[in-house]
């Protein structure tokens, strides 16, 4: 039996997505629209807003991507709680659709490489960025295990080191592992301004260039909330020889609200293995 301390219950059901399991499953199934060929992926970037706003982009991205049974899933820290990097190391997470096991083997390896100070659950308890992705993954993929990482730091050296440790963890496991980054793009500017800013960041991601992503986000003041975990993921992908990046979908909240003057935008990106 899993100790209750290491069980994370959903915090955002009925806020970002339906709480009723049948309604949630139906909602996700309707959003899983495949517009591109299905490919095995080593990396995904998907948005994490309420399903009414970002669900279409997330659904299109998951629908055409086949992930591994082992996942390292990373999101930004919106709450300010927890460590600079919070790695949940054991137990399970629950959603209205059921339980997801923590990949304790990979989480232990990662902690050994990064340091025990990163073993933390506080950063995850009231953070939505990872939770919002999980029902999509449960409906689309069924069983998988995961290492959840909540990233608060924006220190470049720390982000690079985290990426190196993630790559080493995957190499040591000798099993296929998909890295998933949860991030929205620019916030609360016009759709036109958002698109201009976003594509500086998107171009850097497509070119597997973490240094450029970090530089563009900071110099051009792009409010991409998950850029920090994306920087770490790109470092890991380069060490793992990732390639074939592809933009799957780009959208913004104004498409739903009808107000293009102040939007949040969303991108879905994958790195195919072949």
Structural write-up:
This protein is an alpha/beta fold and 274 residues long. The protein has a single domain, classed as 3-Layer(aba) Sandwich (Protocatechuate 4,5-dioxygenase, Chain B). The protein has ten helices and twelve strands. Strands 1, 2, 3, 4, 5, 6, 7, 8, 9, 10, 11 and 12 form a twelve-stranded mixed β-sheet that branches. Strand 6 (92-95) and strand 7 form a beta hairpin. The longest helix is centred in the middle third of the chain and has 18 residues, at 156-173. The chain is globular and about 45 Å long. The chain starts with 6 loop residues before the first strand and ends with a strand. The model has no long low-confidence stretch (mean pLDDT 96).
CATH superfamily: LigB-like
DSSP strand tally: 12
Structural class call reads alpha/beta
- From the spread of the alpha carbons, the general shape counts as globular
Overall structural domain count: 1
Report the major sheet. 12 strands, mixed
CATH C-level label: Alpha Beta
Radius of gyration based on Cα positions: 17 Å
**CATH topology annotation:** Protocatechuate 4,5-dioxygenase, Chain B
Overall mean pLDDT stands at: 96
Helix fraction, binned, reads 25-40%
Low-confidence stretches: none
Order of helices and strands: EHEHEEEEEHHHEHEEHHHEHE
Number of helices: 10
Strand content: 15-25%
What is the CATH architecture term? 3-Layer(aba) Sandwich
Straight-line N-to-C gap: 40 Å
How would the blueprint of this fold be written?
Blueprint: E1 7-8, H1 21-31, E2 39-46, H2 51-63, E3 65-66, E4 70-76, E5 85-87, E6 92-95, E7 98-102, H3 104-114, H4 122-125, H5 134-141, E8 145-151, H6 156-173, E9 177-182, E10 187-189, H7 191-206, H8 210-219, H9 227-239, E11 245-252, H10 254-257, E12 263-272
Parallel strand pairs: 1-6, 2-3, 2-9, 4-8, 4-9, 7-8
Antiparallel strand pairs: 2-12, 5-8, 6-7, 10-12, 11-12
């Amino acid at each position: 039996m899993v100790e209750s301390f290491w069980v994370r219950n959903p915090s955002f059901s009925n806020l970002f997505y339906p709480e009723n399991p049948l309604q949630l499953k139906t909602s996700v199934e309707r959003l899983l629209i495949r517009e591109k060929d299905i490919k095995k992926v080593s990396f995904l970037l998907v948005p994490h807003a309420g399903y009414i706003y970002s669900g279409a982009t997330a659904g299109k991205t998951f629908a055409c991507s086949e992930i591994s049974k082992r996942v390292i899933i990373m999101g930004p820290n919106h709450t300010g709680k927890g460590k600079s990097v919070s790695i949940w190391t054991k137990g399970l997470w629950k959603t209205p659709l059921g339980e997801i096991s923590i990949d304790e083997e990979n989480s232990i390896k990662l902690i050994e490489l990064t340091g025990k100070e990163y073993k933390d659950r506080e950063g995850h308890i009231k953070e939505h960025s990872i939770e919002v992705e999980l029902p999509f993954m449960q409906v689309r993929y069924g069983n998988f295990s995961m290492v959840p990482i909540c990233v608060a730091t924006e220190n470049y050296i720390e982000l690079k080191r985290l990426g190196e440790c993630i790559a080493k963890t995957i190499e040591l496991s000798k099993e296929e592992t998909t890295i998933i980054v949860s991030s929205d793009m620019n916030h609360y500017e016009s759709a036109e301004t958002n698109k201009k800013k976003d594509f500086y960041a998107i171009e850097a991601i497509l070119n597997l260039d973490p240094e450029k992503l970090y530089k563009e986000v900071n110099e051009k003041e792009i409010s991409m909330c998950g850029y920090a975990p994306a920087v770490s993921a790109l470092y890991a992908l380069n060490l793992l020889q990732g390639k074939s990046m592809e933009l799957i979908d780009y959208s913004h909240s104004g498409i739903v609200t009808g107000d293009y003057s102040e939007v949040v935008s969303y991108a879905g990106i994958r790195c195919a293995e072949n």
